[in-house]
Amino acid sequence: MKQKLKKPRLSTSLLRYIFTAASIRRWNDQATPIEFTELDKQAHKFVIAYLFAKIEENEKKINIDWEKLILHFCFEFFSRIVLTDIKPPIFYALQKNYRDNLSIFVIEKLRNELSEYPFFDTMHNYLKNPPNTIETQILKAAHFYASKWEFDIIYHFNPYMYDVQNIKKSIDLEVENHYHLSGMQKTILFKNIQELITMFGQLRFQKRWSQTPRIPSTSVLGHTLVVAICSYLLSYDIDACKQMRINHFLCGLFHDLPEILTRDIISPIKQSVKGLDQQIKELEEKAVKEKILSIVPENIADDIVYFTHNEFSNRYKISCFIENIEGEEIFKYNQDEYSPIYGEFLKICDLLSAYLEAKISIAHGISSKDLTEGAEVILKKCGTKVIKNIDIGSIFRDFE
Q1: Distances (CA, A) of 115 to 15, 83, 119, 122, 369
Q2: How far is the C-alpha of 244 from the C-alpha of 27, rounded, in Å?
Q3: Contacts of 211 by beta carbon, 8 Å cutoff, 6+ apart
Q4: d(CA 12, CA 26)
Q5: If you write DSSP's letter for every residue of 102-120 in order, what string do you get?
Q6: Does 1.20.210.10 match the CATH number of domain 220-398?
Q7: For residue 177, which phi and psi values (nearest 5 degrees)?
Q8: Pairing between strand 36-37 and 315-318?
Q9: Given this structure, which CATH class describes domain 12-193?
Q10: Domain ranges across the chain
Q11: What is the DSSP code (8-state) at residue 270?
Q12: What is the DSSP-derived secondary structure letter of residue 26?
């Protein structure tokens, strides 16, 4: 007897919440040379948190709980979406005096979307009373450094606007308050780390579907965060081990890293010329090696190679050697010690993000042949996908 398929916990309503962050404009009371969105800021924040955490591990030999870092980041991200665009001084004052009430409000807003996940109660406790751990310190430091990165652009654009000097002093002070972290020290002292953070930041300026109008207009960096969150949440449904869940989040976040150096080359171009896709891959790998791997600590370089080389292949590690495997055979190595990545699953999450970008824009009344045909192709490819008896395709079908 055929086993009945299960629907994943990841709902269309939660996906719509996530995409709300692409419409929340930051610094909307300032004269800005470009538009800053919450989705991009959050993606940049976690990239910086990753760098800080890796430097902390390397310099002080501290063990970072990577799943805690990811979960606490997600808790803060979901909370920020629900509480929308409150100015920072007001937000911090409200948090100081009404944290319990605000945490209850956030939890109730997201109960239908998140209550079935094993971390739901932990999220409520975290929002009510965040612990003072190395993971939360890193997230806070990354938050302020990402804000500083944005504000430096605004400051140089127009340093004489009302309150700009006070904002600059406030952000600089918050950054200084995190000098006890090796990652913050090295970032302030060394141009290489600053340049790497700026390289990632530039993915904010590269727009997805660049040849067609879209609302909201999402960036490559914002897209990678959506892929990271979707792949992490769906990893619970396919019973991925802890390290596979962590790898899926990080691989989702970094999978488009080579586009910093080559820009987004759309699939029809890659697929139309024989051998072009492989040539692009080789050029990307060479550029990543020269511009990124050469300037980062070894533990970061090893990660970047593992996450970006053949990013959609299924792989695991045995004694530091990377092995590839086909299909659901990867679950034979579904144990933390093998550091597995289900690349084919990540590709589905990548296509899910692209599908949502198209469908949400169409729902907003901004459509085009590229968007409608692109969505149809993705639905045809992914609408019947099943992994470990989980009807992944239902997420795509539910958006129809």
Answers
A1: 15, 19, 8, 11, 38
A2: 36
A3: 266, 370
A4: 25
A5: HHHHHHHHHHHHHTTSTTH
A6: no
A7: -65, -10
A8: unpaired
A9: mainly alpha
A10: 12-193, 220-398
A11: H
A12: E
Bridge-based pairing of strands 25-26 and 36-37 is antiparallel
Backbone angles phi, psi at 26, to 5 degrees: -95, 155
Length of the chain: 400
Question: For residue 28, with 0-12 CB atoms within 10 Å meaning exposed, 13-18 middle and 19 or more buried, which class applies?
Answer: exposed
Residue 344 φ then ψ, to 5°: -65, -35
In whole angstroms, what is the distance from residue 174 CA to residue 171 CA?
A: 5
Distance (Å, whole) CA 194 – CA 148: 12
The DSSP H or E segment spanning 324 is strand 321-324
Tokens for 32, please give them.
């800005």
Pairing of the two strands 25-26 and 315-318: unpaired
DSSP 162: T
Peptide bond into 88 cis (omega under 30): no
For residues 22 and 7, the answer to whether their CB atoms sit within 8 Å is no
**Residue 207 is which amino acid?**
K
Cα separation, 15 vs 231, in Å, equals 12
Helix (H, G, I), strand (E, B) or coil at 269: helix
Per-residue pLDDT of the chain (400 residues; tens, 9 = 90+): 467 899 999 999 999 999 999 999 988 888 888 889 999 999 999 999 999 999 999 999 899 999 999 999 999 999 999 987 677 777 777 878 888 899 999 999 999 999 999 999 999 999 999 999 999 999 999 999 999 999 999 988 888 788 888 989 999 999 999 999 999 999 998 888 898 899 889 889 888 987 888 999 999 999 999 999 999 999 999 999 999 999 999 999 999 887 766 655 555 555 555 667 777 777 777 777 777 888 888 889 999 999 988 899 999 999 888 999 999 999 999 999 999 999 999 999 999 999 999 999 999 999 999 999 999 999 999 999 999 999 999 999 998 7
Same fold, 12-193 and 220-398: yes
Distance separating the N- and C-terminal Cα atoms of the chain? 30
Q: How far apart (Å, rounded) are the C-alpha atoms in residues 318 and 338? A: 6
